[in-house]
Amino acid sequence: MIDDVGYAKLNLALHVRRRRPDGYHDLETLFAFCEAGDGLSAEPADTLGLTIEGPFGAGLSAGPDNLVLRAAAALRAAAGIDAGAAIRLDKRLPVAAGIGGGSADAAAALRVLARLWTLAPDAADLRALAAGLGADVPACLESRSCRGEARGDALVPVADEALRGTPVLLVNPRVPTLTGPVFRAWDGVDRGPLATGDALLAIARAGRNDLEAPAIRLEPVIATAVAALAACAGVVLARMSGSGATCFALFESSAARDAAAATIAADHPGWWQLATRLR
Ligand SMILES: C[C@](O)(CO)[C@H](O)COP(=O)(O)OP(=O)(O)OC[C@H]1O[C@@H](n2ccc(N)nc2=O)[C@H](O)[C@@H]1O
Ligand SMILES: Nc1ncnc2c1ncn2[C@@H]1O[C@H](COP(=O)(O)OP(=O)(O)OP(=O)(O)O)[C@@H](O)[C@H]1O
């Protein structure tokens, strides 16, 4: 059996620059990834099949529309093979939550199945396959901090040592937000580029998530979640990720993160939360 993790993705900053003729938007984003995520494993089998379990597995289709099976089909087609696999997805991340979810699962499926089927795809070919599955999938394939430009799929490597191991808390007020409608609610105002350079935390802190305001217009509770995180002691950065509704905070220490987690759990017992670190 081969297993891997669909690591939770964060957008430490996300600047939306312009709407494109193809319906997408040009972005400048700083991606980071958490140590935790969805579990994904595969064993040899005659046909391709997907079993879903885990706290967020209920209600998620295990049919050909699932991004795991779309990734498997794309990899098989590109390799010109008809191999099978019994794939198991342990869905631990909320769905439609701005933290990769399906994109992280698709990327993990590409990594796992390339190993199971002993394919040695060219890295560029795998990245192109990933981009065809979704704008976030190439970044999730790397699952390392990087800058994303164009649709978010043109990746620029960054020196991420300073971020690695940073304690992080994710909270989701349990409202699903769909990415397309949040982009469509963006006001069209270009608020300027994301800074460049190696001081990633300073760049993130000086940046913004331009999807936060439109997501809050659609789901006002997101403002409560960002404010609850920002009010905690030891917070370095508190913001919404992606198109929401998950919000995250980076902390000075794991003790500060754990204290924040306890406070938020007491104040908002219905919210999902995850205490982890950046990888
Ligand atoms: C918001 C982010 O999560 C930030 O990392 C991503 O940009 C979204 O990535 P994703 O979920 O992989 O997005 P896709 O599945 O490719 O696109 C879903 C929908 O989001 C909108 N979309 C996505 C990415 C982008 N750069 N511009 C867009 O306008 C489009 O309406 C698209 O139809
Ligand atoms: N394996 C999967 N996990 C989660 N969602 C999936 C999966 N496969 C297909 N989907 C569909 O993809 C949609 C988006 O879910 P996902 O969790 O990827 O969103 P997201 O967290 O907003 O992602 P992103 O941060 O990349 O925008 C959902 O409506 C869901 O039905």
Summarize, please.
Helices cover 32% and strands 29% of the residues. It is built from nine helices and ten strands.
Protein described:
It is a single chain. Helix content is 32%, strand content 29%. It has 279 residues and is an alpha+beta fold. The protein folds into 2 domains: 2-157, Ribosomal Protein S5, domain 2, CATH 3.30.230; 167-277, Alpha-Beta Plaits (2-Layer Sandwich). Strands 1, 2, 3, 4, 5 and 6 form a 6-stranded mixed β-sheet that branches. A hairpin with a 5-residue loop joins strand 1 (2-19) and strand 2 (25-43). Helix 1 packs parallel to helix 2. The longest helix has 15 residues, at 102-116. 45% of the residues are buried. The mean pLDDT is 97. Adenosine-5'-triphosphate binds at residues 60, 66-68, 95-103, 105, 136, 179, 242-243.
Q: Name the CATH class of the largest domain.
A: Alpha Beta
How many discrete domains? 2
H-E order: EEEHEHHHEEEHHHHEEHE
Approximate strand percentage = 25-35%
Rg, alpha carbons:
18 Å
Using the alpha-carbon principal axes, give the shape. Answer: globular
Active site: 9, 136
EC number: 2.7.1.148
GO molecular function, one term: 4-(cytidine 5'-diphospho)-2-C-methyl-D-erythritol kinase activity
Function: Catalyzes the phosphorylation of the position 2 hydroxy group of 4-diphosphocytidyl-2C-methyl-D-erythritol.
